[in-house]
Every structure is written in C-alpha cells, then in structure tokens.
Amino acid sequence: MNPRESPFVLPASHRLPTTKIAPAIRLGWLLLAAWMVLLSPMAVTLQAQSSKPVRVGILGLDNYQGVAYAELFNNPKAEGDLAGVQVVAAYPIGSDDYPESAALMARWQATLARFGAANEKSALKDFHPVAMVDSVEALLGASDAVMIMSLDGRLHLRQAGPVLKAGKRLYVGRPLASSLADAVAIFKLAEATRTPCFSSSQHRFSPGFFGMRNHPEVGRVLGCDVYGGYEVKGAKADEFIRPLHSLETLYTIMGPGVETVRCAASPLAESFTLVWKDGRVGTYRGIKEGKVKYSATVFGDLGVSTAGIYGHGVPVQGVVPTHDKYMGYEGMAREMAKFFKGGPPPVTSGETLEIFAVLQAAEQSKARQGVAVPVAEVLKAMAGPLP
Cα 332–335–336 angle (5° rounding)? Predict the structure, then answer.
C-alpha cells in the first residue's frame, strides 16, 4: 500500500466502478459529509475551550507561597508546564493567632493588586490580574482549582471542606495540617468526594534534593542525614510541623517505608533517627541555635556526597552549584500546574500521611525518653481505615 494512502481506502483493484455504486450509498456519503460540516464549528468550540487556562483561586493570603506561584502562573512569558494556568481570584483571609498575619496579608494583597494594573511601571503590568473576592462561594465560582495559603495549618481542614465538596482540585500549601488527625480527615474527605488533593513542601522539588535519588556519584541510596531550621520562637501552632521541610527532603531522597522513629531533644537541636523497613537509616537534625542551612549528606553504594542547597542544582564532585539558575518555587509550581491540568497528585496521600505519622511518632518518642516508636502503631491508632 502507498504509505500516503489511507488504510481505510480499498485498493483500486477492489473498488467498484463509480457507475455501479448504489444511490443509497451515495446518499449516505453525502449525509455524512453534511454532518461533518455541521460538527466542525462544535469541534472548533471544544478546541477553544480546551485551550483556555485553568483558573486557580487562592484561599487565604498571609502565606507568601500564594504570591510566588501567582507570579509564575500569571507571567505572560510562562511556558512549558507553567503555561495554561492562571490565578484569577483570591479570598484574603488571615490567621488570627499569628501576630504577623494581618501585615503579611495586606502586603501580599497589595502585590497582587499590581498584576495588570494600568499605572504599574514594572513587568507586573502585563501579568494576568487577580480579583479579590469576599467569600469562599465567590472564590469557588470563579475557579477550576484552589490552593489554600493560610499560615495556620489548624484552619486547613475547615477551609478544605467546601473546596473538596465542590469537586475543585486542591493543593494545600505547607503544612497540609497541624496534626495527624486533621491530615487524615482531609484525605478521607478528598476520597469521599473523589476530588484530587495533595500537599508538599517546595523543598521536595528543588533540583539539588530530588536529583540525589539517582546521582551517578552516589548510586543506590543507602542512607541520608538531613538538616534544617527548627524555629523555637515560632508560633505555637507550628510546633508539630517544624521539621516538615527537612522530612520532605529526606523522603524525596530515601522514599517512603519508615518502620520506627526515635527522637532526642536539647536546647540546641531536635534529632530524629528513622529506620526503614529494608534496614536503611536516615536522620534529621533540627537546628535550634547557630547558623541555619537546609541540605543533606547522602550515602550510597557508589559514594558519599553532600546534597545541593535549596533552589539550586545537584553537586558535581562534591561542589554545590550556587551560580546556576535559582529555581525557588518553580519546581513545585510545575508539579502543581500539571496537577491542576488533570494530572495525578505528584505526592500520594499515603506518603504524606506517613510523614505526619513520623512527626507524631517523634513526639511520642520524645515523651518516652527516646524509645523507638513504630510508625505502623501510630497509624493504627487513627480511627477508621486510612485513604
């Protein structure tokens, strides 16, 4: 067969002469052609609809992450995964128990007001504007998907409820919640409403961290020691989730499967020792005093290497790049964009709940003078089946 010839057209030797084609068949072809002409405007309309950007709403506005992602999504020069997603509305509510919340909310609201403003002098003049709304209902009406950006994780379960019940895809900015119980409740509601939902620290998608999973100088990862800040003077509501950035980094490099957790604490540091089911060991050092830095040391069957630092690439021969492109929130934003467009959650609910169970196990270990606490025991104590 001629490669340019349609496989649905009979070869010339098998075709009937035109004069022998039955009139009814001729009429059928004419009707089909007419039907295709009628359908063509519908096809154009559907194509136009599918090319419309996914509309995202921000619920809560005292967390800088909301502005950071809006700057990436609403930039007219956005390309690749970032193209096709726009923040269109925000409901500016704060976190009453955070003294800085009101000032931060006013600051980020003022920044978003500059998007698309006629009198704006910076590049923000060309960004897609973001409307301020005065209710959750108005936000849901304007949006296809939502990101919760309240500082206080204790509010997230209540805020997630109407979003999930409305069937809007949901990203919850770190933290998902301020307790394991609330984290379980959010994912159970997501499962009950069949609405995709996820949460993650932006550290998980920083190149210098996720690139260590298969680093050629490290090989198969056998262990990892992560370290990062542990803000002792922060809000009391944050106490449970203070290690979250670093634990997300540890899970990014090691993967899930933690069996036991031990915790030791002093005025200088908070220290976790995690043992995986396959015998691998990972540690977390929460820095309470001294210079704070977020990174890790990774141990593999081929070598040992420092990880990169937040926002930058993987080290080469132990040298951490600092003059490469700073990624910041961009890696996380790309994963969010794929999710908002219909892709699967980039982090499963099971892995996120395991991390929260590790946090809970560490609290129990600390209260019991550092004994090893099984993660499965913590999860089992949660009422009802987990999602």
Answer: 85
* Beta-bridge partners for 301: none
State the virtual CA torsion across 43, 44, 50, 52 in degrees, nearest 10: -160
CA torsion 368-373-379-380 (nearest 10°) is -90
pTM, rounded to two decimals = 0.84
Domain ranges across the chain:
54-202, 205-327+345-380
Q: Would you give the DSSP letter of residue 263? A: E
The class (CATH top level) of 205-327+345-380 is: alpha beta
Tell me the CATH number of domain 54-202, given options 3.40.50.720, 3.40.190.10, 3.40.50.300, 3.30.2350.10.
3.40.50.720
Phi/psi at 304 (5° precision): -125, 135
- Along the chain (387 residues), what's the average pLDDT of each consecutive run of 10 residues? 35 40 45 41 38 94 95 96 97 92 95 95 96 97 97 96 98 95 96 97 94 94 96 82 95 97 96 98 97 95 94 91 90 97 96 96 96 93 61
DSSP, collapsed to helix, strand or coil, labels residue 243 as coil
